[in-house]
Amino acid sequence: MNARAARPSKPSPKPSGSDEVRAAILAAAGRHLARHGTAASLRDIATDANVNLGLIHRHFGNKDDLVRAVLESHANAGAGLAGRSTDLAGTVQEIFAHNADSGQYIKTLAWLLLANAPIEQFQTQYPTISALRELTNSEDQELHLLAAFALIYGWAVFGDQLLAAFGHTPRARHKVEQQLADVLGRLVSPQ
After folding, report:
1. Which residue intervals of 102-172 are DSSP H helices?
2. Are 82 and 132 in contact (CB under 8 A)?
3. Per the domain annotation, does 68 fall within a domain?
4. Domains of the chain: total
């Protein structure tokens, strides 16, 4: 075993101040919820965020409250992007690229659905989709937007399996994602 690989990674500095603590907790929770769903441990999230477990409860409340905050944070980030845009195709492609990289929001939603969690207790508004729907100019284009989100959500969860099923190596992922982004752009462009 390589001696360098055996060394633990340098811990990140402890966040200080309310905003830094909240941001660190949200980032760590996003990673853990995407990986483990509702089985994610608050203790592991606190360790990853480099904060005391009590700070999660102080800033967010219980685990359900933290899940809601993570989903809201991701939804607001997407809504900000969509709300500043007048280019439906470009924005959909950008949302795809972001979710192809991490997919935390989508994977967290998938875990909640698989756990039969009542999704309306965690999210009732979809500001990104609402903002993008404002950019559509017909029912047909709105249906194409819905299809685009089906592709985005499906790729975030099943991308690795689909690459394997179609005989692509993991190294081909970037090229395939560029091609899928092009398809998405054409799909939502006005006919």
Report:
1. 104-114, 127-133, 139-165
2. yes
3. yes
4. 1
